[in-house]
Amino acid sequence: MKILNFGSLNIDFVYDVVDFVTKGQTITSSGLNQYPGGKGLNQSIAAGKAGASICHAGLIGKDGVSLRDLLDEAGVDTTDVKICDEERTGNAIVQRNHDGDNCIVLYSGANRALTKDFVDEVLQKFGKEDWLLVQNETNLLGYIVEQAHQRGMKVAMNPSPADELLDEVDLSLVDCFILNGGEAEAITGKSGTPEILLDAMCEKFPGAATILTSGSWGSGYAKGTQRVRQPAYRVPVVDTTAAGDTFTGYVLANMVVGKDIATSLERASKAAAIAVSRQGAAPSIPLADEVDNLETSTIISTEE
């Protein structure tokens, strides 16, 4: 059983600021760092470090070869990470404030240069019992989901960013949503507590599982009448950039190998807690041994 992540690969430019820039304003950054990133890349690295058998498919420009090397180092199969001669690698401009929060502007670049021929070539290597993982940072998302479903693959989606491009996707084909509160609100048109949003997702997609993350509340799983809750862990926050991606990669990696949902949520929460205590996106993602050996005395449940 394998995971195929048809996902984005970016180079992130992270600017340290006191406050996020507003309309008509020019501000000075106190620092600039360059990191590998992209939700697809981050989630593949997280799943690889969690021990999953994962393959990444996507496009980079000639300036992004180091991203493929980084995936290789995390144990990710990069056979289908190809170079696009016509486009540069996607990039993100990230503003990071003193609290570790961030806001991001994306340039898609090669991430939106996928072709149907390329998608078909990749998907023919996968079938029933395999999982497809996608985000909303590449083109042809609707086609990828539809073709994977037709091949009997299970589809996991992190619908981020939750914008109008999701309208092109048949979300009824998704088997598992992994998303935050804002994304759940955008998809369901409902607002309220995490519990209300989980119920709304189940009502709109009765055949799918939903895993919702919501800051200090933690995370929760819902499918049908089943509900599982995992409190968040409180740690010193340095950079939240890869928190959600770390969680997504870890929770899916554990589910795919047969871990129960409570264990999967717990390990993903611990991995995300480690990630936010470090700088950068992909470089902050911990190895499975780090998660397993994490001293619980160093982290505090927000419910304690």
Keywords:
single chain, 304 residues, alpha/beta, UDP-N-acetylmuramoyl-L-alanine:D-glutamate ligase, nine-stranded mixed sheet, 15 strands
Task: Note down, in words, how this protein is organized.
With 304 residues, the protein is an alpha/beta fold. The protein has one domain (3-9, 40-78, 112-301): UDP-N-acetylmuramoyl-L-alanine:D-glutamate ligase, CATH 3.40.1190. Helices cover 30% and strands 26% of the residues. It is built from 9 helices and 15 strands. It has a 9-stranded mixed sheet, sandwiched between helices. Strands 3-2-6-7 form a 4-stranded mixed sheet. Strand 6 (90-96) and strand 7 (102-107) form a beta hairpin. Helix 3 (116-123) packs parallel to helix 4 and helix 7 packs antiparallel against helix 8 (261-276).
Question: Could you tell me the strand content as a percent range?
Answer: 25-35%
Number of domain modules: 1
Q: Averaging pLDDT over every residue, what do you get?
A: 94
Major β-sheet, in short? 9 strands, mixed
Q: Which shape, going by the Cα principal axes? A: globular
CATH class: Alpha Beta
**CATH topology call:** UDP-N-acetylmuramoyl-L-alanine:D-glutamate ligase
End-to-end gap: 38 Å
The CATH superfamily is Ribokinase
Strand order, largest beta sheet: 5-4-1-8-9-10-11-12-13
CATH architecture: 3-Layer(aba) Sandwich
Total E-strand runs: 15
What structural class is derived from the secondary structure elements?
Answer: alpha/beta
Low-confidence stretches: none
Helix content: 25-40%
- Counting DSSP H or I runs of 4 or more residues, the number of helices is 9
- What is the string of SSEs from the N terminus onward? EEEHEHEEEHEHEEHHEEEEHHHE
Give the C-alpha Rg. Answer: 18 Å
